[in-house]
Automatic annotation (TrEMBL):
GO terms for cellular component: cytoplasm. This is Purine nucleoside phosphorylase. One of its GO terms (molecular function) is purine-nucleoside phosphorylase activity. Keywords: Glycosyltransferase, Phosphoprotein, Transferase. The purine nucleoside phosphorylases catalyze the phosphorolytic breakdown of the N-glycosidic bond in the beta-(deoxy)ribonucleoside molecules, with the formation of the corresponding free purine bases and pentose-1-phosphate. Residues 24-269 form the Nucleoside phosphorylase domain. SUPFAM superfamilies: Purine and uridine phosphorylases. InterPro entries: Nucleoside_phosphorylase_d, Nucleoside_phosphorylase_sf, Pur_Nuc_Pase_Ino/Guo-sp, Purine_phosphorylase. Belongs to the PNP/MTAP phosphorylase family. PANTHER family: METHYLTHIOADENOSINE/PURINE NUCLEOSIDE PHOSPHORYLASE, PURINE NUCLEOSIDE PHOSPHORYLASE-RELATED. It comes from the Bacteria. Its EC number is 2.4.2.1.
Length: 271
């Protein structure tokens, strides 16, 4: 795997020249609009990049974007990868490892998720303070590659507290409804049953989604600073549960996107 990561990073470097991003961004479902704020220097479709997995979702663009955001050089994944697409955890997290070799120090992650905490509402934002990983595999399973990180990485603070607190301050200063909570990662692709929502809340979850935890585990393995934020696109409250479709989820995410973009831009500007 190390040879593949190094080969892919070298191929990308050959096409972006001396551009060295200091931050990586993973854009979740319905949240690709942040790219409009980037002064783009180079775009690379996933399909053109050697060994790079290709997003199979029609609402994920599948491009690596290189450019400047809030005065900082960034690389953004416009379209992420999911376990339910049939990829291994190593494939899902491959782009994070490549971004690290390209030079990033901080990883910013966004996602669309369902609210579990009854104090939260769809359309709100939630800074991820911690997570519970219920996905059926771990990206670090297998032989450890010492050049990438330690065999047993510490996860006592997977999300950077300083960036999280700054995000909450930015939200408060701009009248943006933003909570802090625990994200539960499940495999998907189905949404949860009433009993599953109830269980996820009992074990400590404030929101549930189908991504993020694998990328965050690998980012911590490689020593990256991590910030993550969710757009709450639906409500998983068992007693009042209503059917929800992907179209509604994407629409809610797009409605909340300007607030998420504002927070991301200010955080990146302060790096």
């Amino acid at each position: 795997m190390l040879n593949s990561i190094q080969r892919t990073a070298a191929w990308i470097k050959n096409r972006i020249g001396d551009f060295e991003p200091e931050a990586g961004i993973i854009l979740g479902t319905g949240l690709g609009g942040l790219v409009r704020e980037i002064e783009i220097e180079k775009q690379l479709p996933y399909s053109n990049i050697p060994d790079f997995p290709i997003s199979t979702l029609e609402f994920h663009s599948g491009r690596l974007i290189f450019g400047t955001l809030a005065g900082k050089k960034v690389v953004a994944m416009q379209g992420r990868l999911h376990y339910y697409e049939g990829y291994s955890m190593q494939q899902i997290t491959f782009p994070v490892r490549v971004m690290k070799l390209l030079g990033i120090k901080t990883l910013f992650v966004s996602n669309a998720s369902g609210a579990l905490n009854p104090a939260f509402k769809k359309g709100d934002l939630m800074v991820i303070d911690d997570h519970i990983n219920l996905q059926p595999a771990n990206p670090l399973v297998g032989s450890n590659i010492d050049e990438l990180g330690p065999r047993f990485p510490d996860m006592s603070e997977p999300y950077d507290r300083t960036l999280s607190e700054k995000a909450l301050q930015i939200a408060a200063a701009n009248n943006i409804t933003c909570h802090k909570g625990v994200y539960v990662a499940v495999s998907g692709p189905n949404l949860e049953t009433r009993a599953e929502y109830r269980y996820l809340r009992i074990i400590g979850g404030d929101a549930v989604g189908m991504s993020t935890a694998p990328e965050v585990i690998v980012a911590n393995h490689m020593g990256l600073t991590v910030f993550a934020i969710s757009v709450l696109t639906d409500e998983g409250f068992p007693d009042t549960l209503k059917p929800v479709g992907i179209e509604e989820i994407i629409e809610i995410a797009r409605t909340a996107e300007p607030d998420l973009t504002h927070i991301m831009k200010e955080l990146i500007a302060g790096l």
